[in-house]
């Protein structure tokens, strides 16, 4: 086993979970490979890091490719030049940290700038900066002020990228003080955990959500377990601590919400729960023609288009099925952005024609579709009045499922379209190259901003069309199924 120095990444893990920390430090090979979406986040982080450096012209970049000792030596030489330093690294005992940017300040001190691709300062950034400050000062590098540089979501791109406005600098010198106080003791504690011969036991808690070792640590849980109990929060942990792991094993008299009780009852009987009157009341609000609408969107840390902000959801595709009257054939319209240019004006213009003047516009979790439309109209005010005129026509197909007017045990506590569709209609996403919104977004970005062969681009376009169409066809199937219950 190779022992690693205690870096800022390791320190952050140590604050979350001793087991994760121990494995990261002592047996890193046990960690699964980084998945595609995490890699995309890392890539955006590197991009932001490089843009941040451009704000400090004349800076010296430390080259760590020749190894740790060479990097430390280079850093020592750079410190003497009193210029901005990128990736300056210092070691003190078993601790080691590299600063994204060190900027010379008055009296021979340095400002520490930690660059993040988030749109604000988070608590774990403060503990990260506090750890770094401790390492640098322990290594003899005095720090005067600490900053987190992050994206400014109020920035709207207009023309060339303005990095000075894209990135905001927040002074966290005061905010890190409560975190700094505990750093020496926490380092001692983590070094002690690191020296243990075996990994600590898993302690399942909220920190496990999204952890790379989640599946391994939670492998003792059955497939339909108390963590899929609808909106359960702490209740799931309480049940687990009582060794009640499967939904079907939750006692009848356990304190559950009405929806949780429905879920548990369905799990025990294997039968769906159906409330015909409530479903009928929902269906009554539908007015023909019916328009079934679904957007696919993407977002990027660095907006590639004018009139776009960091991490703004921008539509690149929609699918629209229309049924003019009961029993009529469905009509299908779709749009998929042809390339690198912003398609929002075309999307708004096409929808303005295709959505007509009357009839219900049905979306699943319509708040998302509405937010996308409002965002577009915000940037393109030409469509503001039209948008206001269609909003009263929007019907959210999510509502009967969110309210458990229909629930099938195979939903496993979820009311998402992906969870509803297979048990209710027999339709689904199995076998599709693109089977969820995240994959659609990643493929689109790869197709448009990546460096792919034409053949592969065609394959992705095809897969995107199939996926988005499946969402709106699925909604039609759901409506038919709901009518069959009344
Ligand atoms: S899943 Fe939970 S217990 Fe396991 S390593 Fe991750 S945070 Fe720790």
Structural write-up:
The model has no long low-confidence stretch (mean pLDDT 95). This protein has helices at 8-16, 18-26, 36-53, 68-81, 123-138, 163-166, 177-181, 183-194, 214-217, 234-241, 258-269, 276-284, 344-354, 366-379, 384-390, 399-402, 417-425, 437-449, 454-484; strands spanning 60-61, 85-92, 95-104, 110-115, 143-151, 167-171, 273-274, 290-298, 314-323, 330-336, 360-363, 394-396, 406-407. It has 19 helices and 13 strands. Strands 1-2-3-4-5-6 form a six-stranded mixed beta sheet. A five-stranded mixed beta sheet has the order 10-9-8-11-12, with helices on both faces. Strands 7-13 form a two-stranded antiparallel ribbon. Helix content is 43%, strand content 16%. With 486 residues, the chain is α/β, with parallel strands linked by helices. Strand 2 (85-92) and strand 3 (95-104) form a beta hairpin. It has three domains: 8-194, Lambda Exonuclease, Chain A, CATH 3.90.320; 221-271; 278-484, Ribonuclease H-like superfamily/Ribonuclease H (Nucleotidyltransferase, domain 5). The longest helix is centred in the last third of the chain and has 31 residues, at 454-484. Helix 1 (8-16) runs antiparallel to helix 2 and helix 18 (437-449) packs antiparallel against helix 19. The termini are far apart. The protein is globular. Iron/sulfur cluster binds next to helix 2 and helix 9.
